[in-house]
Amino acid sequence: YGDLQGKTVIVTGASSGIGKAIALRFGKEKANVVMTYNSNPDPMEEMIAEIKETGGQAVAVQANVSQEEDIRKLISTAHEHFGALHVMVNNAGIENEVPSEKLSLDDWKKVIDVNLTGAFLGSREAISYMLEHGIEGSVINMSSVHEVIPWPHFVHYAASKGGVKLMTETLALEFAPKGIRVNNIGPGAIYTPINQEKFDDPESRKSVEAMIPMGYIGKPEQIASVAAWLASSESSYVTGITLFADGGMTKY
Ligand code: NAD
């Protein structure tokens, strides 16, 4: 998608998994990439170098997406380094499986704070910036197949992603007249650090694969290509959708 060249993109939760693949993909598109890491800065220098090698530019910022001041710092970093913000990818997320009757208020709040409040703050601040600077940008939120598929022991996670679904649809309606598009990606089962322990266990891997019509667990790069499309003008008439990249899982 040639038109991402020179565009500025923020990717939250870029130090691993899907976020890392998205940041590297935008690097290949020769974009300016502002990446966040939460606590472990180890992979960032390597990623910055890789993005430069492929023709993009990159900077890494420590940020907790559920903190307003961190999100503001992120937007100002994009502005200071690259003078604009065209694409915001609210990717950071957490999950853990807990039977609902044992789920502590603390665990409930943590998941809602990162997955839903984090996506809201990232969307709000990015949209404010785009409005202020007259940019017809693209906001991409990382939802999940669990925005439509309920799942035992995932009540907090499913609630957070269900919230992201309607938040995105509402923002899409509100800012369509300004040319700002807001969409979700709904990954199915993707092999990343969030779930690799589960997927490395042959039994649970088999049970997950049985739910995927295409028969295999996806790769982060297969989500990154969807993010690149939603960011580019190739999707210029698309807003308010969840694009499921799930090997057909939601159609079972
Ligand atoms: P991951 O654990 O590799 O990546 C999550 C990233 O978010 C990490 O880099 C982590 O440091 C960051 N993060 C966590 N809390 C944060 C916070 N408070 N502030 C800033 N960053 C924070 O997992 P992943 O699979 O790459 O997940 C990325 C997104 O994709 C998540 O939103 C997840 O819910 C979603 N998702 C993943 C799958 C899957 O099967 N892997 C499926 C559906 C949706």
From TrEMBL:
Q: Name one GO molecular function term.
A: glucose 1-dehydrogenase [NAD(P)+] activity
Q: Which reaction does it catalyse?
A: D-glucose + NADP(+) = D-glucono-1,5-lactone + NADPH + H(+); D-glucose + NAD(+) = D-glucono-1,5-lactone + NADH + H(+)
Q: Which Pfam families match?
A: adh_short_C2 (PF13561)
Q: Write the record's keywords in alphabetical order, separated by commas.
A: Oxidoreductase
Name the InterPro entries on file: NAD(P)-bd_dom_sf, Sc_DH/Rdtase_CS, SDR_fam
| E.C. designation(s) | 1.1.1.47
The entry describes its oligomerization and partners as:
Homotetramer.
- Tell me its family: Belongs to the short-chain dehydrogenases/reductases (SDR) family.
Protein name, per record: glucose 1-dehydrogenase [NAD(P)(+)]
Species this chain originates from: Paenibacillus algicola
